[in-house]
Amino acid sequence: TMALRKLGTTILLSAVLFGTTVDAEFTRHDQIVTWVRSKGGSFSEKVEIRRVDTSDPKSYWGVFAKEDIAAKEDLFNIPKDCYIHVFDTAENMNVEEEMEPYLNNVCKLTHKLKEEMKLGEKSEYAPYIAYLKTQRPGQLPANWSKEGKDVLRKVAIPNSPMVDWIDWHFKEKNCIGNDSFEEHMVEMTIQRSYDTALIPIWDMVNHDNGRINTENDTMYHKDGMKVRAARNLKAGEEIFASYDSCLDCYDINSYWGTPEILKDFGFVENYPHRWVFNDPAIWFEIYEHDGELEVYFSEEDEPLNEDQIRFLQKELDRLEKVEDDVLQNQGAVPDNEWRTILQFHDAAVDDIEVVIKMATDVLSNADNNEL
């Protein structure tokens, strides 16, 4: 979890491979790098794609510095010819918080990916497709087991799309049918794409908003995705990006946070956390420093008013009841899904508790000052 009492046990997952031998996995990565270079791209000799623990074949994959790298040094450049994209037919997404164009673009990209996956070795993106074919279904909650989905649906805030977004936004809109392969294509598109494009290697860089050490040009740059070191990197250091505070993210951090990271990427992120509630409107971030949690509100929400505090207390009470009623017995929920559910529940409880205490203290002090 990411609780104060259990700091440091979060499992970071993003580009995880399953069901293949170590040699085959390394070969597949080498083939992608060779292909990217053949298209005019680059991949620094000082960088490698490997498991975080090379002695543990089940540890997660990431991109790492093989040797010291100077700030501003190029890490890799992925040409547009390597993107699987729908730029030609994409709808404009500049309207903030407008979901329809975004969902339509994801639908188009899903069908593009499905076509390329069916082409396989005949695809013009064959090395990348070979890698994507190693990605198992069920990495996102929307594609979990029925038992896992049923439990997470009770943990997530009521009416959250956390579990049911494929049904709501893609099946009911006739983007896909009731087909497991198509469900996996939507899942993979959401998890690995940048709305209108899937970008090899860039999609293997893991997310951690507390440890971002890369910078990049827009993915729409004529020369493709250029990624550099944002600071000096030490040999062995993992290379991180942000999945929500990024150049091409359309300022989604105003309405998108830790629950959405779980929904769209399948893991509970390390601190900082962000929580956004719509009714009443509440936005806050939680940072962890030396084992202590610190709260940052939006300017509009500082301090929270009594109605907002009551809402959060009601949500905390609901989460504690879920713990008593639902989370005492794993039942048939698969281990990885159960761990993630407990991590998310603990993060929500701990973060909301801290916010309520801080906001209540601020209101109490304000009342005392008025006396």
Distance N to C terminus: 42 Å
Extended strand count: 13
Query: How many domains make up the coordinates?
Result: 2
* Anisotropy-based shape: globular
Q: In what order do the strands lie side by side in the largest sheet?
A: 1-4-9-8
User: Uncertain segments of ≥5 residues (pLDDT<50)?
Assistant: 1-21
CATH structural fold name of the largest domain:
set domain protein methyltransferase, domain 1
What fraction of residues sit in β-strands? 5-15%
Helix content: 25-40%
Give average pLDDT, whole number.
90
Protein name: SET domain-containing protein
Signal peptide: 1-24
Organism: Pseudo-nitzschia australis
GO molecular function, one term: protein-lysine N-methyltransferase activity
Protein described:
This is SET domain-containing protein. GO terms for molecular function: protein-lysine N-methyltransferase activity. Keywords: Signal. Residues 45-244 form the SET domain. With 371 residues, the chain is an alpha+beta fold. It folds into two domains: 22-249, set domain protein methyltransferase, domain 1; 271-370, no CATH class. It has helices at 22-38, 99-119, 126-132, 146-155, 165-171, 180-192, 258-265, 306-325, 335-370, and strands spanning 42-43, 47-51, 61-65, 74-78, 84-85, 197-198, 206-207, 214-216, 225-229, 240-241, 273-278, 281-289, 292-297. The strands form five sheets. It has a four-stranded antiparallel beta sheet. A three-stranded antiparallel beta sheet has the order 11-12-13, with helices on one face.
